Amino acid sequence: MTRKFAKVNGSLPGEKAKKLLERRGQAVPKGVSNGVPTFAEKAEGALIHDVDGNTFIDFVGAIGTMNVGHCHPKVTAALHKQVDQYIHPGFNVMMYEPYIELAEKLAAIAPGEHEKEVILFNSGAEAVENAVKIARKYTKRSGVVSFSRGYHGRTLLTMTMTSKVKPYKFEFGPFAPEVYKAPYPYNYRRPDSTTEEQYEDFIIGQLHEFFVNDVAPESIAAVVMEPVQGEGGFIVPSKRFVQAVYEECQKHGILFIADEIQAGFGRTGRYFGMEHFDIVPDLITVSKSMAAGLPISGVIGRKEIMEVSAPGELGGTYSGSPLGCAAALAVLDIIEEEKLNERGEKLGQVVMSRFRQLAEKYDEIGDIRGLGSMCAIELVKDRKTKEPNKELTNLIITEANKRGLLVLSAGAYGNVLRLLMPLVITDEQVAEGLDILEEAMEAAVSQQVVNA
Predict the structure, then answer these.
(1) Reduced to 3 states, what is the DSSP secondary structure of residue 369?
(2) Does Glycosyltransferase show up as a keyword for this record (predicted)?
């Protein structure tokens, strides 16, 4: 197949990458995982060029961080300007306007007509940790509820809230107390004898039972939910389920926290994924694509909730850095000017159309699903048993990398291919990337047949 964008000369890693890998092996622990075995040299839009002259179409976007693409000119210009002014006076020492301006803009685009305030941090996990702190302070309760297959970070509290044991939790305990896991629907893996409606009834019933058998609702400060489970395998809940959770929160005075760290800023076709479910969260955590690769995060919340904490109780040394603020402000302008919310919706339609064609061709595809451009394929060994096929998933990723496409796995079983391409990707790049993905799938399936 003729490639216009993707280009890989020979095998991976190349000669320069091999030398860097040797250095990495001496200086960096293996506990830090890596995808494709090479090193970036330059990136723009949806393309990454490595040190050996190879070019990759990026369907990963730094795990959902690059919605406006790599090195968008408006982002780099904003950073250059900010660096020339000041780098970090420390907001808790001397304040700066970009922090205020970003807080104003995030409050304005967040769902709901109520008054809102915004506090900024560094990472997604920090945002979730602080959202929980704020919720506990406001409600005077200690319990936190997250969901089966959810992912919220790697710090002690957020690791506890996360479901997947390996690689995130194994032998890292003991974990934080007062964290409870509620049931979450996984429609593809519902019992064959059960209709979607019956399954939904059952899960909602289990939710009600959860607040009887597992924890008393009056002891819960907050429920934390992703609008689409990211690491969990891009599992999209029904509107009815999300609203049932929200109603349970409203009934018992529990704060509803929307973890929008991976789903936010155009990925699902809206600024925030929860907008699809017609609810208004009490608190929203944001990070990743908010700043096009700069480390910054935030919590957006109802003013009366955010105001409960006293001066000095929230914050951190680098929280809301000027560089992160400058990048985030540029990102919000880009999303509006380039209509990236609409682009996210359109990309999802294109990708899901190709996924449907692939599902007709390959019995190894058990399910396709997504919301906006947050799209995924679940791979199985048998469509009837739905046994996960992690091995095939890894083979597809390897074959895609060899052809110049970056893709990523997800899911509790590691058998889900998820796509998080920059929303600024061109139609030609999308088409070429999907062609490579199909070619990689064909090669991987053929290898499994030969090795069977």
Answers:
(1) strand
(2) no
Asked if residues 290 and 264 have their Cβ atoms less than 8 Å apart, the reply is: yes
For β-strands 143-147 and 179-182, DSSP reports them as: parallel
- Write phi, then psi, for 143 (nearest 5 degrees): -75, 145
Burial 177-215 (b: 16+ CB within 10 A, else e): ebbbbbbbbbbeebeeeeeeeebbeebbeebeebbeeeb
CB atoms within 10 A of CB 31: 6
pTM as predicted: 0.96
pLDDT at 418 over 90: yes
Q: Cα–Cα distances in Å, from 128 out to 225, 253, 354?
A: 11, 19, 35
Overall average pLDDT of the 89-100 stretch: 97
* DSSP character at residue 215: -
Locate all alpha helices (DSSP H) within 216-339, ordered by sequence.
Answer: 239-252, 303-306, 322-337
300 in helix, strand or coil? Answer: strand
Whole-angstrom Cα distance, residue 23 to residue 26?
A: 5
What spatial distance separates the first Cα and last Cα of the chain, rounded to whole Å? Answer: 28
What single string gives the DSSP state of each residue in 12-65? SS-HHHHHHHHHHHHHS-TTS--SSSS-EEEEEBTEEEETTS-EEEESSHHHHT
Instruction: Tell me the pLDDT band of 171, cut-offs 50, 70 and 90.
Output: confident
Alpha-carbon span 225 to 228, nearest angstrom: 8
Place of tokens 């429920």: 223
DSSP state of 310: P
Mean pLDDT for all residues in the chain: 96
Among 354, 349, 345, CA closest to 434: 354
> With the CA atoms of 115, 256, 420 and 197 taken in that order, what torsion angle do they form, in degrees rounded to the nearest 10?
-130
Spatial CB neighbours of 436, under 8 Å, sequence gap ≥ 6: 1, 3, 6, 57, 400, 403, 404, 405
Mean predicted confidence (pLDDT) in 115-120: 98
What residues form DSSP beta bridges with 380? 388
Write the CB contacts of 159 (distance below 8 Å, at least 6 apart in sequence).
Answer: 153, 168, 169, 172, 175
β-strand partners of 371: 374
Can you tell me the distance from the alpha carbon of 235 to that of 232, in angstroms, rounded to the nearest whole number?
7
DSSP H or E segment with residue 136: helix 124-139
Please list the alpha-helical segments (H only) found in 403-452.
427-451
